[in-house]
Design goal:
Neuraminidase, six-stranded antiparallel β-sheet, 2 helices, 27 strands
Amino acid sequence: MSLMRFRIGSACHSLHLRQLCTSTSKSDNTHHLLISAFNKDTFQQHFFSIPIIHHPLSLGSKPTSLLTLTLPSSHPKGLNTSQYLNPFFLLHRHDYPHSNHAPILTYNPTTQQTLTLPHSLTSETETDTTLYAETHFGFDPLTNTHKVLRAEWTVAIPESNPRVSQMVCTVFTLGCRSNGSWRKVKINPELPFHSTKYMSSGKSVCINGAIHWVTQFGNYIVAFDLKDENFRLIPLPHNYKAENFKPLHFEFNRLIELGGCLALVDYKYSGDIYRGDEYICQFWILKDYHNHVWVEEKISVPFDFRINIYGKPIPIGTIPTGEILLEPFSWYVSCKDYPACLLFYDMEGQGFKKVDVTGLPKWVYNGRHSIIRAISVYEGASNSIFA
Protein backbone atom coordinates (compact mmCIF):
# COMPACT_ATOMS: atom_id res chain seq x y z
CA MET A 1 0.00 0.00 0.00
CA SER A 2 1.27 3.43 -0.84
CA LEU A 3 1.88 5.57 2.22
CA MET A 4 0.04 8.41 0.50
CA ARG A 5 -3.23 6.52 0.88
CA PHE A 6 -4.47 7.72 4.24
CA ARG A 7 -7.89 9.06 5.12
CA ILE A 8 -8.73 12.43 6.62
CA GLY A 9 -11.74 12.70 8.87
CA SER A 10 -13.71 15.51 10.56
CA ALA A 11 -14.35 18.92 9.01
CA CYS A 12 -10.87 19.20 7.55
CA HIS A 13 -10.46 19.45 3.78
CA SER A 14 -7.50 19.32 1.43
CA LEU A 15 -5.92 22.11 -0.57
CA HIS A 16 -4.10 22.25 -3.84
CA LEU A 17 -0.75 24.03 -3.70
CA ARG A 18 -2.04 27.01 -5.69
CA GLN A 19 -4.76 27.57 -3.06
CA LEU A 20 -2.37 27.77 -0.16
CA CYS A 21 -1.72 31.51 -0.51
CA THR A 22 -5.44 32.26 0.01
CA SER A 23 -6.00 29.85 2.88
CA THR A 24 -4.93 32.03 5.80
CA SER A 25 -7.26 33.75 8.25
CA LYS A 26 -7.25 36.80 10.47
CA SER A 27 -6.08 36.52 14.05
CA ASP A 28 -8.43 37.35 16.89
CA ASN A 29 -5.78 36.95 19.63
CA THR A 30 -7.30 33.76 21.04
CA HIS A 31 -5.02 30.83 21.76
CA HIS A 32 -5.58 27.11 21.92
CA LEU A 33 -3.76 24.03 23.08
CA LEU A 34 -3.30 21.42 20.35
CA ILE A 35 -3.00 17.83 21.56
CA SER A 36 -2.11 15.14 19.03
CA ALA A 37 -2.71 11.53 20.12
CA PHE A 38 -2.15 8.34 18.11
CA ASN A 39 -4.49 5.41 18.79
CA LYS A 40 -2.39 2.24 18.55
CA ASP A 41 -5.49 0.04 18.24
CA THR A 42 -7.12 1.82 15.29
CA PHE A 43 -4.03 3.39 13.64
CA GLN A 44 -5.80 6.73 13.78
CA GLN A 45 -4.16 9.98 14.81
CA HIS A 46 -6.49 12.49 16.45
CA PHE A 47 -5.96 16.22 16.91
CA PHE A 48 -7.83 17.98 19.73
CA SER A 49 -8.06 21.65 20.62
CA ILE A 50 -8.59 23.15 24.08
CA PRO A 51 -9.01 26.94 24.53
CA ILE A 52 -6.53 28.65 26.84
CA ILE A 53 -8.22 31.01 29.31
CA HIS A 54 -5.78 33.73 30.39
CA HIS A 55 -7.49 35.44 33.35
CA PRO A 56 -7.07 33.45 35.47
CA LEU A 57 -4.88 30.98 33.60
CA SER A 58 -6.82 27.78 32.92
CA LEU A 59 -7.99 25.46 30.16
CA GLY A 60 -11.46 25.03 28.72
CA SER A 61 -13.35 21.94 29.90
CA LYS A 62 -14.66 20.83 26.51
CA PRO A 63 -11.95 19.85 24.00
CA THR A 64 -12.86 20.04 20.31
CA SER A 65 -11.99 17.22 17.92
CA LEU A 66 -10.27 18.90 14.96
CA LEU A 67 -8.83 16.25 12.69
CA THR A 68 -8.59 12.47 12.40
CA LEU A 69 -6.03 10.79 10.14
CA THR A 70 -6.34 7.07 9.43
CA LEU A 71 -2.81 5.83 8.80
CA PRO A 72 -1.53 2.58 7.28
CA SER A 73 0.04 -0.06 9.50
CA SER A 74 3.47 1.12 8.33
CA HIS A 75 2.98 4.09 10.72
CA PRO A 76 3.17 2.27 14.09
CA LYS A 77 3.91 5.47 16.03
CA GLY A 78 1.87 8.03 14.12
CA LEU A 79 2.97 11.39 12.72
CA ASN A 80 5.23 14.00 14.29
CA THR A 81 3.93 17.56 14.66
CA SER A 82 6.32 20.43 14.05
CA GLN A 83 6.64 23.76 15.82
CA TYR A 84 3.62 25.97 15.06
CA LEU A 85 4.54 28.66 12.52
CA ASN A 86 1.46 30.80 12.01
CA PRO A 87 -0.79 29.52 10.53
CA PHE A 88 0.67 26.03 9.92
CA PHE A 89 1.87 22.86 11.57
CA LEU A 90 3.89 20.36 9.55
CA LEU A 91 2.92 16.70 9.98
CA HIS A 92 5.32 13.96 8.98
CA ARG A 93 6.11 10.35 9.79
CA HIS A 94 7.68 9.62 13.18
CA ASP A 95 10.78 8.08 11.63
CA TYR A 96 10.44 10.04 8.38
CA PRO A 97 11.86 9.72 5.89
CA HIS A 98 13.37 6.26 6.22
CA SER A 99 10.69 5.59 3.60
CA ASN A 100 10.99 8.02 0.72
CA HIS A 101 7.24 7.86 0.12
CA ALA A 102 6.05 8.81 3.62
CA PRO A 103 3.50 11.67 3.50
CA ILE A 104 4.28 15.23 4.61
CA LEU A 105 1.32 17.51 5.26
CA THR A 106 0.81 21.11 6.23
CA TYR A 107 -2.15 21.64 8.53
CA ASN A 108 -3.92 24.89 9.39
CA PRO A 109 -5.98 24.23 12.54
CA THR A 110 -8.04 27.42 12.29
CA THR A 111 -9.21 27.00 8.68
CA GLN A 112 -9.18 23.18 8.88
CA GLN A 113 -7.18 22.86 5.68
CA THR A 114 -4.43 20.38 4.84
CA LEU A 115 -1.95 20.18 2.00
CA THR A 116 -0.08 16.99 1.13
CA LEU A 117 3.30 17.85 -0.33
CA PRO A 118 4.68 16.01 -3.35
CA HIS A 119 7.33 13.34 -2.82
CA SER A 120 10.72 14.86 -2.13
CA LEU A 121 13.74 14.36 -4.31
CA THR A 122 15.71 11.27 -3.42
CA SER A 123 19.44 10.99 -3.71
CA GLU A 124 19.35 7.20 -3.80
CA THR A 125 20.95 5.71 -6.90
CA GLU A 126 22.51 2.42 -7.88
CA THR A 127 25.71 3.61 -6.20
CA ASP A 128 24.27 5.45 -3.17
CA THR A 129 21.73 4.69 -0.46
CA THR A 130 20.10 6.83 2.25
CA LEU A 131 21.45 6.13 5.72
CA TYR A 132 19.35 8.64 7.68
CA ALA A 133 17.15 11.65 6.99
CA GLU A 134 15.27 14.42 8.83
CA THR A 135 12.48 16.92 8.16
CA HIS A 136 12.50 20.55 9.39
CA PHE A 137 9.95 23.36 9.06
CA GLY A 138 10.65 27.09 8.97
CA PHE A 139 9.26 30.56 8.29
CA ASP A 140 11.16 33.55 6.90
CA PRO A 141 9.50 36.83 8.03
CA LEU A 142 11.52 38.88 5.52
CA THR A 143 10.05 37.07 2.51
CA ASN A 144 6.87 35.89 4.29
CA THR A 145 7.43 32.32 3.15
CA HIS A 146 7.26 28.90 4.80
CA LYS A 147 9.82 26.29 3.77
CA VAL A 148 10.33 22.59 4.42
CA LEU A 149 13.93 21.39 4.64
CA ARG A 150 14.87 17.77 4.12
CA ALA A 151 18.38 16.76 5.24
CA GLU A 152 19.50 13.36 4.02
CA TRP A 153 22.68 11.42 4.77
CA THR A 154 23.83 8.98 2.10
CA VAL A 155 26.61 6.40 1.82
CA ALA A 156 28.17 4.80 -1.21
CA ILE A 157 27.39 1.23 -2.29
CA PRO A 158 29.38 -0.79 -1.44
CA GLU A 159 30.25 1.01 1.80
CA SER A 160 33.82 2.04 2.41
CA ASN A 161 35.72 1.23 5.58
CA PRO A 162 35.60 3.49 7.49
CA ARG A 163 32.13 4.60 6.37
CA VAL A 164 31.97 7.98 4.65
CA SER A 165 28.60 9.76 4.54
CA GLN A 166 27.46 12.76 2.56
CA MET A 167 24.79 15.29 3.51
CA VAL A 168 22.25 16.17 0.79
CA CYS A 169 19.59 18.87 1.39
CA THR A 170 16.43 19.76 -0.51
CA VAL A 171 13.91 22.54 0.11
CA PHE A 172 10.22 22.94 -0.65
CA THR A 173 8.68 26.44 -0.60
CA LEU A 174 5.01 26.80 0.33
CA GLY A 175 2.68 29.40 -1.13
CA CYS A 176 1.97 31.26 -4.34
CA ARG A 177 5.62 31.59 -5.35
CA SER A 178 6.24 27.88 -5.24
CA ASN A 179 6.55 25.85 -8.42
CA GLY A 180 5.35 22.78 -6.53
CA SER A 181 8.67 20.97 -6.51
CA TRP A 182 11.71 20.33 -4.31
CA ARG A 183 15.03 22.06 -4.99
CA LYS A 184 18.49 20.86 -4.12
CA VAL A 185 20.46 23.15 -1.76
CA LYS A 186 24.13 23.82 -2.42
CA ILE A 187 26.22 23.31 0.72
CA ASN A 188 29.18 25.63 1.23
CA PRO A 189 32.30 23.43 1.20
CA GLU A 190 34.24 25.98 3.29
CA LEU A 191 32.23 25.27 6.45
CA PRO A 192 33.99 23.30 9.20
CA PHE A 193 31.74 20.49 8.09
CA HIS A 194 31.48 16.99 9.46
CA SER A 195 28.32 15.47 8.04
CA THR A 196 27.61 12.98 10.84
CA LYS A 197 27.87 15.74 13.46
CA TYR A 198 25.08 17.68 11.78
CA MET A 199 22.41 15.10 12.62
CA SER A 200 19.75 16.49 14.93
CA SER A 201 19.30 15.28 18.49
CA GLY A 202 15.66 16.42 18.66
CA LYS A 203 13.08 18.74 17.16
CA SER A 204 14.25 21.83 15.35
CA VAL A 205 13.18 25.38 16.24
CA CYS A 206 12.66 28.25 13.80
CA ILE A 207 13.54 31.75 15.10
CA ASN A 208 14.83 34.88 13.32
CA GLY A 209 14.24 33.40 9.89
CA ALA A 210 16.43 30.35 10.49
CA ILE A 211 15.88 26.70 11.39
CA HIS A 212 18.01 25.52 14.33
CA TRP A 213 18.84 22.13 15.77
CA VAL A 214 21.32 20.75 18.29
CA THR A 215 23.82 18.37 16.76
CA GLN A 216 23.89 14.81 18.03
CA PHE A 217 27.66 15.06 18.43
CA GLY A 218 29.77 18.20 18.57
CA ASN A 219 29.79 21.65 20.14
CA TYR A 220 27.37 23.55 17.93
CA ILE A 221 23.82 24.41 17.03
CA VAL A 222 23.21 24.21 13.29
CA ALA A 223 21.36 27.18 11.76
CA PHE A 224 19.87 27.09 8.27
CA ASP A 225 19.01 30.59 7.03
CA LEU A 226 15.80 30.42 5.05
CA LYS A 227 16.33 33.54 2.94
CA ASP A 228 19.72 32.67 1.40
CA GLU A 229 19.49 28.91 2.19
CA ASN A 230 22.96 28.73 3.72
CA PHE A 231 24.18 26.86 6.80
CA ARG A 232 26.07 28.38 9.70
CA LEU A 233 27.06 27.28 13.20
CA ILE A 234 26.21 28.75 16.61
CA PRO A 235 28.59 27.64 19.40
CA LEU A 236 27.03 26.18 22.52
CA PRO A 237 27.53 28.17 25.75
CA HIS A 238 30.75 27.19 27.48
CA ASN A 239 29.18 26.32 30.83
CA TYR A 240 26.56 24.21 29.07
CA LYS A 241 29.25 22.18 27.31
CA ALA A 242 31.24 21.78 30.53
CA GLU A 243 28.24 20.44 32.43
CA ASN A 244 26.54 18.43 29.71
CA PHE A 245 28.98 17.24 27.07
CA LYS A 246 29.38 13.49 27.06
CA PRO A 247 28.69 10.81 24.42
CA LEU A 248 25.03 10.57 23.37
CA HIS A 249 23.96 13.03 26.07
CA PHE A 250 22.62 15.60 23.62
CA GLU A 251 20.00 13.08 22.57
CA PHE A 252 18.10 13.93 25.75
CA ASN A 253 18.38 17.73 25.60
CA ARG A 254 15.86 20.02 24.00
CA LEU A 255 16.00 23.22 21.99
CA ILE A 256 12.95 25.44 22.45
CA GLU A 257 11.69 28.97 21.84
CA LEU A 258 11.54 30.97 25.06
CA GLY A 259 10.08 34.45 24.90
CA GLY A 260 11.21 34.92 21.31
CA CYS A 261 14.73 33.62 22.04
CA LEU A 262 16.45 30.35 21.32
CA ALA A 263 16.96 28.31 24.51
CA LEU A 264 18.65 25.07 25.53
CA VAL A 265 17.07 22.95 28.26
CA ASP A 266 18.57 20.41 30.63
CA TYR A 267 17.67 18.82 33.96
CA LYS A 268 19.52 18.40 37.24
CA TYR A 269 18.66 16.49 40.38
CA SER A 270 19.72 17.30 43.90
CA GLY A 271 19.61 14.21 46.07
CA ASP A 272 16.81 11.68 45.72
CA ILE A 273 13.76 13.08 43.89
CA TYR A 274 11.63 10.22 45.17
CA ARG A 275 12.15 11.55 48.70
CA GLY A 276 11.22 15.05 47.65
CA ASP A 277 14.66 16.52 47.05
CA GLU A 278 15.23 19.33 44.58
CA TYR A 279 14.70 18.93 40.84
CA ILE A 280 16.17 21.73 38.71
CA CYS A 281 15.25 22.70 35.16
CA GLN A 282 18.07 24.70 33.58
CA PHE A 283 17.76 27.08 30.63
CA TRP A 284 20.51 28.62 28.54
CA ILE A 285 18.84 31.52 26.69
CA LEU A 286 20.44 33.13 23.64
CA LYS A 287 19.64 36.73 24.61
CA ASP A 288 21.93 38.30 21.99
CA TYR A 289 21.43 36.22 18.88
CA HIS A 290 24.01 37.91 16.64
CA ASN A 291 26.81 38.10 19.23
CA HIS A 292 26.05 34.65 20.71
CA VAL A 293 25.50 35.88 24.27
CA TRP A 294 23.86 33.22 26.47
CA VAL A 295 22.17 33.79 29.84
CA GLU A 296 21.59 30.92 32.25
CA GLU A 297 18.33 30.62 34.20
CA LYS A 298 17.21 27.93 36.65
CA ILE A 299 13.82 26.97 38.05
CA SER A 300 13.19 24.54 40.87
CA VAL A 301 10.26 22.22 40.16
CA PRO A 302 8.13 21.59 43.27
CA PHE A 303 7.80 18.05 44.48
CA ASP A 304 4.02 18.42 44.73
CA PHE A 305 3.93 18.07 40.94
CA ARG A 306 4.53 14.41 41.78
CA ILE A 307 7.65 13.82 39.73
CA ASN A 308 7.64 10.22 40.86
CA ILE A 309 4.13 9.79 39.41
CA TYR A 310 4.31 11.76 36.16
CA GLY A 311 8.02 11.76 35.42
CA LYS A 312 10.05 14.93 34.90
CA PRO A 313 8.13 17.84 33.31
CA ILE A 314 9.45 18.84 29.88
CA PRO A 315 9.42 22.53 28.84
CA ILE A 316 7.64 23.10 25.52
CA GLY A 317 8.08 26.86 25.25
CA THR A 318 6.33 30.07 26.26
CA ILE A 319 2.67 30.84 25.70
CA PRO A 320 1.66 34.34 24.47
CA THR A 321 1.12 35.64 28.02
CA GLY A 322 4.74 34.78 28.91
CA GLU A 323 4.37 31.67 31.05
CA ILE A 324 6.49 28.61 30.28
CA LEU A 325 4.40 25.56 29.37
CA LEU A 326 5.70 22.22 30.65
CA GLU A 327 4.24 18.82 29.85
CA PRO A 328 4.64 15.74 32.06
CA PHE A 329 6.86 12.92 30.90
CA SER A 330 3.79 10.67 31.04
CA TRP A 331 0.03 11.20 31.12
CA TYR A 332 -0.66 7.53 31.57
CA VAL A 333 -1.72 7.57 35.20
CA SER A 334 -4.58 5.30 36.17
CA CYS A 335 -4.95 6.64 39.69
CA LYS A 336 -7.83 9.11 39.88
CA ASP A 337 -5.88 11.20 42.39
CA TYR A 338 -3.37 12.17 39.69
CA PRO A 339 -5.24 13.22 36.53
CA ALA A 340 -3.47 14.26 33.35
CA CYS A 341 -2.18 17.80 33.71
CA LEU A 342 0.11 20.50 32.42
CA LEU A 343 2.36 22.84 34.35
CA PHE A 344 2.74 26.59 33.75
CA TYR A 345 5.60 28.63 35.19
CA ASP A 346 5.48 32.41 35.59
CA MET A 347 9.03 33.71 35.01
CA GLU A 348 8.27 37.06 36.65
CA GLY A 349 6.33 35.82 39.65
CA GLN A 350 8.46 32.66 39.82
CA GLY A 351 5.46 30.48 40.59
CA PHE A 352 3.92 27.31 39.18
CA LYS A 353 0.34 26.49 38.34
CA LYS A 354 -0.85 22.96 37.64
CA VAL A 355 -3.83 22.69 35.26
CA ASP A 356 -5.72 19.42 34.79
CA VAL A 357 -6.52 18.32 31.24
CA THR A 358 -10.01 16.81 31.17
CA GLY A 359 -12.67 15.89 28.66
CA LEU A 360 -10.55 13.90 26.20
CA PRO A 361 -11.55 10.34 25.19
CA LYS A 362 -10.56 7.76 27.80
CA TRP A 363 -8.15 5.96 25.47
CA VAL A 364 -5.98 9.09 25.25
CA TYR A 365 -5.04 8.72 28.92
CA ASN A 366 -4.11 5.03 28.57
CA GLY A 367 -0.52 4.33 27.57
CA ARG A 368 -1.39 0.85 26.33
CA HIS A 369 -3.64 2.34 23.65
CA SER A 370 -2.21 5.76 22.81
CA ILE A 371 0.95 7.74 22.09
CA ILE A 372 0.88 11.49 22.79
CA ARG A 373 2.62 12.80 19.68
CA ALA A 374 2.49 16.54 20.40
CA ILE A 375 1.31 19.25 22.77
CA SER A 376 1.52 22.73 21.22
CA VAL A 377 -0.05 26.18 21.36
CA TYR A 378 -1.50 27.90 18.32
CA GLU A 379 -3.27 31.16 17.60
CA GLY A 380 -7.00 31.26 16.87
CA ALA A 381 -8.70 33.13 14.06
CA SER A 382 -11.78 35.24 13.54
CA ASN A 383 -13.37 32.62 11.29
CA SER A 384 -12.26 29.73 13.48
CA ILE A 385 -14.62 26.84 14.18
CA PHE A 386 -14.22 27.73 17.86
CA ALA A 387 -15.90 31.11 17.50
